[in-house]
Design a protein that fits this description.
Blueprint (H helix, E strand, L loop, with lengths): L1 H168 L11 E8 L4 E8 L2
Antiparallel strand pairs: 1-2
Organism: Takifugu flavidus
Protein name: Scavenger receptor class A member 5
Keywords: Receptor
């Protein structure tokens, strides 16, 4: 009996010890459960925030994708416009280059024509000067000859007047008519002239 009592006491002691262990285990489990609940709550909050952030990022990515699509369309339009402008400018540049080349040819032709006209003008001017010199010489000769003829006529008139005076002052025989003859010699040069009258009785 004493042995059984001792064993019973030992069993009771073990039972109390086991209960203490169970209480401690329960406390630990409660603590772990609370900690797990807190961790789960925190994890759920983090997951919720992460989900919200991912949703926002997805929205932003979609908006960015839309903006990129619109930007790509705008770039395509700009590239098309630039290509059209480049084509137009290339055509205009080619056209203007041809026009400039044609104008350069025209300017070169005009320059050559001007040079030819200038040479012709110089030759014509020289020819006109030569002809003017010839005309001036001819005019001077004609004026000198006209002046000489006028002076000769004046001298002839003076001689005729003297002859008439001599004829009226000299007695004339009825059967013989005395005639007075004269000879006039005119010597002329560019510096002047020499005029002589010679009277003779035949």
């Amino acid at each position: 009996m004493e042995g059984l009592e001792l064993e019973l006491r030992n069993l009771q002691a073990h039972s109390h010890q086991s209960e203490g262990y169970l209480v401690q285990l329960d406390d630990r489990l409660s603590s772990l459960s609370s900690s797990a609940e807190r961790n789960v709550s925190s994890l759920i909050s983090e997951v919720s925030r992460t989900s919200t952030w991912l949703h926002n990022q997805d929205v932003q990515l979609r908006e960015t994708s839309g903006q990129l699509s619109r930007l790509r369309e705008n770039l395509d339009e700009v590239n098309w416009t630039v290509g059209a402008v480049n084509h137009t400018f290339s055509s205009d540049i080619s056209f203007h280059r041809r026009k400039i080349h044609d104008m350069q040819i025209q300017i070169s032709n005009i320059t050559e024509d001007t040079s030819s006209l200038w040479v012709t003008h110089v030759h014509t001017e020289a020819q006109l000067r030569s002809e003017m010199d010839i005309l001036n010489t001819i005019t001077e000769d004609l004026r000198l000859k006209d002046w000489e003829h006028s002076l000769a006529l004046k001298n002839i008139t003076m001689v005729e007047g003297k002859q008439n005076t001599l004829l009226t002052s000299v007695p004339i025989n009825p059967g013989k008519l005395q005639l007075m003859t004269f000879c006039s010699v005119v010597l002329w040069s560019k510096r002047g002239f020499i005029y002589t009258c010679i009277f003779s009785d035949p």
